[in-house]
Amino acid sequence: MKKIIVSACLLGTPCRYDGKSKPSEAVIALGEKYELIPVCPECLGGLPTPRLPCEIKDGCVLRIDGVDCTREYTEGAKKSLEIARENEADTAIFKAKSPSCGKYQIYDGTYTGTLICGQGVTAKLFMENNIKVIDEEELDKL
Ligand code: SF4
After folding, report:
1. Measured in angstroms, how far is the CA atom of residue 32 from the centroid of ligand 1?
2. pLDDT at position 73, please?
3. What is the 3-state secondary structure (H, E, C) of the chain?
4. 38 CA closest ligand 1 atom index
5. pTM to 2 decimal places
6. What is the share, in percent, of the chain residues with pLDDT greater than 70?
7. Residue 47, CA atoms < 13 Å, CB-side half-sphere
8. Atom 6 (ligand 1): residue with closest C-alpha?
């Protein structure tokens, strides 16, 4: 069975910054056809749940209180990539708009709900390493 890396929150794991999950029935249903391997880069980077939200600003991941969390996000991205490689997974389904997992858009660092074009830290690293990334809104691209 082909293995696919998936944002853990999409599979129902309560690992989001607010301590909640974001389950997608369509993603969960893919478990009948694929082996879904959950990863939460922010947890893998050592951040607690719940945690204060972060947004990316000028290439740095800044927590809402100004603390720089770039190191944790980068570490989580590297560990997620290691998991993909260990499992020989060439595809990931990642949660849209996340500062880790977002593929097309991220929040702009002003905490005003403003989206800009950009990639989360892990999604970017995966794509740089030739792993196909799609988000939960484009499962037809699998
Ligand atoms: S880092 Fe990714 S997997 Fe973890 S909660 Fe955020 S969107 Fe979900």
Report:
1. 22
2. 98
3. CCEEEEEHHHHCCCCCCCCCCCCCHHHHHHHHCCEEEEECHHHHCCCCCCCCCEEEECCEEEECCCCECHHHHHHHHHHHHHHHHHCCCCEEEECCCCCCCCCCEEECCCCCCCEEECCCHHHHHHHHCCCEEEECCCHHHC
4. 3
5. 0.97
6. 100
7. 30
8. 16
Residue 50: the pLDDT is 98
Residue among 5, 6, 7, 79 whose CB has most ligand 1 atoms within 8 A, to mutate: 7
Atom of ligand 1 nearest to the CA of 76: 1
pLDDT given at position 69: 98
pLDDT category at 138 given cuts 50, 70, 90 is very high
Q: Please state, in angstroms and rounded to a whole number, the distance separating the CA atoms of residues 18 and 117.
A: 24
27 lines ligand 1 (CB under 6 A): no
Q: Do residues 95 and 9 lie in contact, with contact meaning Cβ atoms separated by under 8 Å?
A: yes
d(CA 98, CA 105): 8
pLDDT at 20: 98
Query: Which pLDDT score is estimated for 32?
Result: 98
